[in-house]
Amino acid sequence: MATHDWADLPGGGQHTCGGLNESSTYRILDDDYIFVSHSLGSRITIDGLQRIAALFANPEEFAKAGVKVTMKPDGGFEADTPDGQNLNVSSTSIQALKNKRIPIFMMSNQLPMLQMGRELPKVTNQIANYCESSGANYASRMLSETSIIAFSDPNDLLSYAVHTDFKDKYLDSRLCPTITNININVARVIEAFGVKGLANPLTAHIGYDTDDRVVAMIANGIGGPNTSAVTTERCEWTKVID
């Protein structure tokens, strides 16, 4: 994703990450990144970003996986795996990431449930130190902001809101996470056998990408000048600043 222009990326989804060269992460300078995840994919995305944050802070961690790491004079590093794969990360790319805001739109997010029994990241409860310009560790952040937008249908049995204290305790502070929860009925609520408020829990779990409001909020946001008409007409929102 960070090695080529969009037009050069393969359409078949069978591209490998090997054979990276000196300028392997050059696209980080110019590109913006957005993740759209579903269910378990939300946990995978967060795990990946937290792993990158840990490795960038301490590239020697690569050695635990049998990877040879060579630090560069400019603050970047080069990693060589036993099978000949090569990754070159320049200090310019690392600095560029520190100024990026990356939104993650999570459908049927399962972060709270899938956190159970897992080890905590090494750096937690220090968001102010890493993410505010006056913070002691501001220069050591990975991103300027990881904006988590979590969509949840109340009838989805496997979806959970992400509480504000979750980001302090369970997310790596170097990601500078922020949380927005969106409660939305993507499954049609019906009355059956005299009981009101019933909905198909399977549809509530997988129906996000076919809901016009979800697509509109991902594309145009909410509460801003570009908000779509379908969002304005069919959604209500409250801005909360913590």
What tags apply to this protein structure?
242 residues, elongated, alpha/beta, three-stranded antiparallel beta sheet, 26% helix
Summarize the structure.
This protein has 242 residues and is of the alpha/beta class. The chain has one domain (19-210). 26% of the residues lie in helices and 19% in strands.
Radius of gyration: 20 Å
Q: Mean pLDDT score, rounded?
A: 82
Alpha-beta classification = alpha/beta
Order of helices and strands: EHEEEHEHHEHEEEHHH
Overall number of domains: 1
Biggest beta-sheet profile: 4 strands, parallel
Q: How far from one another are the termini?
A: 33 Å
Count all strands and give the number.
9
Describe the structure in your own words.
The strands form three sheets. This protein has a four-stranded parallel beta sheet. The protein has a three-stranded antiparallel beta sheet with strand order 2-3-4. 26% of the residues lie in helices and 19% in strands. 26% of the residues are buried. By secondary structure, it is α/β, with parallel strands linked by helices. The longest helix is centred in the first third of the chain and has 18 residues, at 40-57. The protein has one domain (19-210). Strand 3 (77-80) and strand 4 form a beta hairpin.
